[in-house]
Amino acid sequence: MTAPATFDLLTIGHSNHPAERFTALLKGAGVTAIADVRSVPFSRRFPWFSGKALAERLPRHGIAYLAFGETLGGRPRDPALYCDGVADYAAMAESTEFRSGLDNAVSEARRHRLCLLCAEREPLDCHRCLLIGRALAKRGLSLGHILGDGRIESHPDTEERLLAGSGAAAADLFQDRPARLAEAYRRRARAMAAPSPARLKA
């Protein structure tokens, strides 16, 4: 397991963890603040993960709760940030609102052992990795993804899994690794991105 101190910030998906297990994962990684990057910080199936419940419970364990869903959420309000019926991560990454959210996350990571929170257990199923993690890595930050068993996977190792799963891991005579990785990100984002409100109503 990679030591938490190796990373500038961490990410986690709450999945269906019991509240006590989730808190233990955070404490085990030395997390002192959660940045909730869910557009809608609410869970009917797991109410202990709703934003209000987390904001009340986490501080009792020495963990601050920060709401970042307005700027870093995976379901943008602007219809222009959707393409072919799903959220367009490439367009979102260039938006002023998203970049401001990244700036705030970087600032908080200097003050806390910060962990980005979303719902999906697997980083490669979530915008916290495919959108936010990728953007932060481009800024030179070191990220670690807390997995369900408590291990912390480095973002480069997660990218290797992304390449392997995309079938693009093998050397290609016509594409270098950055190009293959970019294509793997594009495909995965297309498969995992949130549907547009119009598509949900259809």
SSE arrangement:
Blueprint (H helix, E strand, L loop, with lengths): L8 E5 L5 H10 L4 E4 L14 H7 L6 E4 L1 H4 L9 E2 L2 E2 L1 H6 L1 H16 L2 E5 L8 H12 L4 E4 L5 E3 H12 L10 H16 L4 H5 L1
Describe the protein's architecture and organization.
The protein is α/β, with parallel strands linked by helices and 202 residues long. The chain has one domain: Tetrapyrrole methylase, N-terminal domain (Cobalt-precorrin-4 Transmethylase, domain 1, 3-Layer(aba) Sandwich), CATH 3.40.1010.10. 44% of the residues lie in helices and 14% in strands. The strands form two sheets. The chain has a six-stranded mixed beta sheet, sandwiched between helices. A two-stranded antiparallel sheet has the order 4-5. Strand 2, helix 2 and strand 3 form a beta-alpha-beta unit. Helix 7 crosses helix 8. The radius of gyration is 17 Å and the shape is globular. The relative contact order is 0.19.
Radius of gyration (CA) equals 17 Å
CATH superfamily: Tetrapyrrole methylase, N-terminal domain
For the secondary structure, the number of strands is 8
Shape: globular
Give the terminus-to-terminus CA distance. 45 Å
Mean pLDDT reading: 93
Summarize the structure.
The chain is an alpha/beta fold.
Primary descriptors:
alpha/beta; 14% strand; globular; six-stranded mixed beta sheet; two-stranded antiparallel ribbon; Cobalt-precorrin-4 Transmethylase, domain 1
